[in-house]
Amino acid sequence: MKIAIGEVMHETNTFSSVKTTVDLFKVWEWQRGEGILSNHRGVRDFLGGMIDRAESLGIEVIPTFAATASPSGTITRETYEAIKQQLAEGIEAAGAIDAFCLSLHGAGVVEGIDDMEGDLLTYVRSLIGYELPLVVTLDLHGNLTEKMAEEADALLGVHLYPHTDCYERGIEAVDLARAMVQDGLKTAMHLTKLPLMITTSTTNLSPAKDINAICWEWEKHPDVIDCAFFHAFPYTDIPEVGVSVVAVTRGDKELAKRVADDVASKIWAKREAFRPQVISPAEGIQLALAAEGLPIVINETSDNPGGGTAGDGTFLLRAMLEANLQNACFGFICDPEVAQIAHDAGVGSTINVKLGGKVDNLHGEPVELTAYVKSLTDGRYITSSPMGKGTPVNLGKSVRLQVGGLDILVCSVSTQVLDEQIYLLHGIDVNTYKIVALKSSQHFRAAFEPISKQIITVDSPGLTTLQFSFFDYKRLTRPIYPLDEAVVYQ
Predict the structure, then answer these.
(1) Quick one: 86 and 195 in the same domain?
(2) CA nearest 2: which of 52, 55, 65, 40?
(3) CA–CA separation, 258 and 330 (whole Å)
(4) 319 and 256 within one domain
(5) Residue 33 to residue 283: CA distance in whole angstroms
(6) Which of 236, 251, 318, 376 has its CA 20 to 30 A from that of 134?
(7) Which residues contact 311 (CB under 8 A, 6 or more apart)?
(8) Which residue in 331, 340, 438 sits closest to 397, CA to CA?
(9) What is the count of structural domains for the chain?
(10) pLDDT tens digits for 261-292?
């Protein structure tokens, strides 16, 4: 048996001014053929799960094309056409296959195409036909559409946030494809959409935890293959934004609808519980100073590169400097200009710079500071977090600056912090610091919850703020909660 695999992964923040190009994909992955296997074998991600499971079952894995970019602005049409061409060439080179397992995100937006995944799946079907099983894995932040559900035999979403179960969804995709090919399994699927947007909601806490429990209870039904709660991606101004539920069954369409509708009604009943508590950077710092033990982690959710920001926001950093903190570290702010200045000056030097706030005017003004250059690195390390463990990371020229009692990490490539590796690379043991600040919404929790005494989320203006009223939505399907209070859902 032969299974082809591929990936096109992008979470598009349409409010970002940074267009997503081929070059941005190539920073993370733009790979054809065998290189996909070497990049992902043994790695805890979607493709890693697919590869490891297929090889353990003696199934031949045929890699086609894999493209991944950090969340950013709308994908250019030229870039999308290049992706389609690479994928088509990869599928053609694969020859005769029995099934296709494709890793997508679910929140991709291209110039002129609101639903990249639906469009791409239609294109893939034009290449492989409708007789071949097409099993798709998705991020739970996908804005799902009927087109996606029509074109795929199964849409398998991650259940956990942080996404520590991507590997398991890859395994599930291969198992399902094998059952369809070898056992003749037929699937049925139903998508239920809600007029609802929610903020980032970790799944080890209520209310998201409670919804997952309902999904898993349904999965105990002998004819239910999968039931997934999609939180959706609210930082995208398209008509299809919104929370959804997808149920996959063993050919029973009515059961799939009953399952999806039931879970959706439970989500709607808890919609008020998804409203977040909003704390400013200054308030968060005071709470951290008053907390017992160390480290106390402060995450700046409003400038999360994992949601499409540039990662050079200064609201939290400025508040930390104004508080004159001791035994505190900030990791990290993206500013390749300052990183280069530090590398040119060398370790032991003192530099005067304007740090951050350079990509747009949404995330704070540049911070003027005089800093000591403590250490310089190439920004390379291997992810140790349960989410994506084994993934190589390259953040380019990086530096540890010191201003009074505050250590500030500056890197040249933007990404959210997933674990303590960027700190360790620069000689910082986060376990010995009172306050550890970072840019991320939830994914950091997989690595930091086990080692931190407390986590404090702070919010301010930014492309991933918890306050949806910050955005000038023009294309959403209205009414939608919580932007509109008077919403009726049946």
Answers:
(1) yes
(2) 55
(3) 48
(4) no
(5) 50
(6) 236
(7) 303, 305, 332, 333, 334, 414, 415, 416, 439
(8) 340
(9) 2
(10) 999 999 999 999 999 989 999 999 999 999 99
